[in-house]
Amino acid sequence: MDENDTAPRKRSKLRVSHILIILLLVGIGYFAYYRLSLKSKLRAKIDAIRTAGYPVTLAELDRWYKIPPNVENAAYTIEEALSLYKSWDKEKSRSLPLIGRAELPPRTETLPTEMITLISEYVTDNNEALELIHQAAGIEHCRYRIDLTAGFGTLAPYLSDMRNIVRLLELEAVLHAENGDGAAATLSAISAFGIARSLAREPLTISQLIRSGCQNSAVSTVEQIVNRIELTDEQLLELTERVRESERISDISRAFVGERCVGISFFGNPETLDPGLGGRSIPFQPIIELYKAIGMADSDMVIYLDLMEGYMNSTQLPLHERQRAVDAVSAKLQSTSKAHVLLHVMTPALSRVTTLELRAIAHLRTADAALAVKRYRLAAGKLPDKLADLAPKYLQSVPKDPFDGNELRYRKLEPGFVVYSIGEDLSDDGGKEKPPRKTKESPAWDITFTVER
Q1: What is the pTM assigned to this prediction?
Q2: Contact yes or no for 417/411 (Cβ under 8 A)
């Protein structure tokens, strides 16, 4: 064959190889640009978080959770009280209200003798713990001995009995009210708010949820007291101050700050995750390494930080606008491609956390308004016609419903009254109380504070 015939073929092959090499180089260049761009975005986002004064690493988070130096720390006293707390076995506690399966009688009815005896025994068994709890409730600052650098492995053993301690205080308050001791009953309620306050600065979602739950139990304690005994104006004012303080210190953004630090730590080192965490199987190690190498972990973190910024921004909105904002953030998470495997496995849907926080604030606000009604009636000898009658002497203004932004609702009863929020379903059910137990029908209900005397 003529050499001139083979030359074009060689040149053709050469050109194809050149094109393939160029395409490969372009691909490598694009990938390098993509990875550098991701790293740049991450640095900018993390720098912005630090500039705003928030921690970004677990070590920084641990230092961020602090109290002033050389002040008394309520945590030490509470932890000692928890170590002295005596829980009854399942069979014995079954007949206890709040702790077991039994229910307290209607608010204005006298407790059965058998129930009084049982509650008295339970309270007596825990007198040592209660004495320390009452002491701790008067201590302003609290920082539990917890190592936040452990991330997902952080242990907070004191949380397990926190709700039972507050229920113990509610039973103690009911017992005092039953015995006609308004001062002691008021102290029990104040201590319940103090236990909730001890968790106010802890940057863990579970801690903030337990704080909200403890606040709700404290409000329930106040509701039990004012239905069973007439308190003095001074005692009502003491309870009012604790209720208002509880709303001032409520800050669900601290949970989001903690979540964000844990997320940053995880997406930076996903191979450290327990494969069973979250109830699903995380891909084996080589796939995790590949996931990181192609930039998916960094991409997940960029999206994650955008989502967490949305949750943080929601805490700056008026209360009644927050639920819609966090629902939009959660919807954005759900609409993100399932290719972002680790993002979907590890990013919690925090909209429910906001719902529970709004519900806790609604409980506090209904209690605030109800205590103002009680003070008004104590002075005037009659119920106000509307909540606006309480301003400015008893309320600076009528509290807003955190769910719709309108004023809390108020309705006179025969006897008594109810103050209520319409709750997350945004339906005004006329002040209908939540049933004590879940039912199959799940009837609609409002968030109420009811006084039937």
Answers
A1: 0.89
A2: yes
